[in-house]
Design goal:
mainly alpha, single chain, 181 residues, 0% strand
Length: 181
């Protein structure tokens, strides 16, 4: 059994299109078109303003990144100088310790010769040599500790500055994203 259907692209025969409705319908369509044009223009303005704000925020972010980069470069240079200074101090300390060691060795040989002559003089002399060796060791250790502490402070400062700059960048980016919504 087949049902007959009217084609979809035709109006039923009893449908009448009245001229008074076509004018109203045309006006409604024209009003809607005008409103869509106004909406389009409004959107263009909004998008243009958002683009300008985005450029400002982008500039702020780029400036922040550049500032962070410069500060990190400065800290890296400062850290490099501190490390160079520490390396020189350590080298000088080692040279001094080596020199003192050689001197202590020579003094020890002299002390051995003196032992044969006078045991009491030798004990005193060896005590002084031991004290000199301990002083050299303590001075070298102090220089190494000072250098380590200085490096540690520089690293903390670089970390602190980096965290601060990242926080500022996150804040700027958050503000930018809020301004877009």
């Amino acid at each position: 059994m087949r049902l007959e259907q009217d084609p979809l692209n035709t109006l039923p025969e009893e449908t009448e299109i009245r001229p008074e409705y076509t004018g109203e319908f045309r006006e409604t369509l024209e009003d809607t078109a005008d409103k869509l044009k106004e909406l389009r223009d409004h959107l263009k303005v909004k998008l243009h303003l958002a683009g300008m704000e985005a450029k400002e925020v982008q500039s702020d972010i780029i400036d922040s990144v550049d500032g962070l980069s410069r500060r990190l470069s400065d800290y890296a240079g400062s850290l490099g100088k501190t490390m160079d200074t520490a390396e020189v101090q350590m080298h000088l300390g080692l040279m001094d310790a080596k020199k003192r060691w050689e001197l202590t060795k020579e003094n020890a040989q002299e002390a051995l010769a003196l032992v044969k002559q006078d045991k009491e003089k030798a004990k005193t002399f060896l005590g002084e040599m031991k004290l000199q060796a301990q002083l050299a060791k303590a001075e070298t250790k102090d220089a190494l500790h000072e250098t380590r502490d200085e490096l540690s402070e520089n690293i903390k400062e670089v970390s602190k500055q980096g965290a601060s700059a990242l926080k500022k960048m996150n804040h700027s980016l958050s503000e930018f994203l809020k301004s877009l919504s």
